[in-house]
Amino acid sequence: MPVSFAEEIQDYVKTDAMQGRDAQTSFVNFMNDKYGHNRDMLKLRYQRFLALVNNKDVTRDKEKIAFLRTEREAFALDRNQRRAYEHAFLDIGYGVTISGPHLVMRMTSALDVQPSDKVLEIGTGSGYQSAVLAHLTNQVHSVEIIEPLHKRTRDVFDNLVKNGRAEFENIKLKSDDGYHGWSEFAPFNKIIVTCAVDHIPPPLLQQLAPNGIMVIPVGPPGKQTLLKVTKEVDEQGKTTITRQDVYNGRLSVSFVPFTKADGGTWNGKGPH
Ligand code: SAH
Question: What are the residue ranges spanned by the domains of the chain?
Answer without folding.
Answer: 1-69, 87-272
